[in-house]
Amino acid sequence: MSEGTWVQGDTGPDFVTVLHPDDDPAAALDLTEVVSQKFQMRKPDDRRFTVNATANVVGAPTNGRVRYSWGVNDLVSPGEYDVQIELTYNDGQIQTQAVPNRITVRRK
Hints:
Blueprint: E1 4-7, E2 15-18, E3 34-42, E4 51-54, E5 56-57, E6 65-68, E7 79-89, E8 94-96, E9 101-106
Parallel strand pairs: 1-9
Antiparallel strand pairs: 2-6, 3-4, 3-7, 5-6, 7-8, 7-9
């Protein structure tokens, strides 16, 4: 998973991460059977997502790589945020990564 710092009000660079199976953090999670992926972001002490939007698989699905392109209002408020990726498989099962990323949005 990735961590990082973005600047308040920016829309780049994109958030990019490689997902891993829970039982093998060195391997990439195979996303071949995934039909949709959501990028979800919230402050650690909040139950509501400030961002709950579609992410995209980058390159071959077997590489486990996912990208989210920031919207114009996503990085408005500075602070720390937990970010997670929620996957929906073609059989309807939903899997959310076990350990969220922690990112920082610093003041401009």
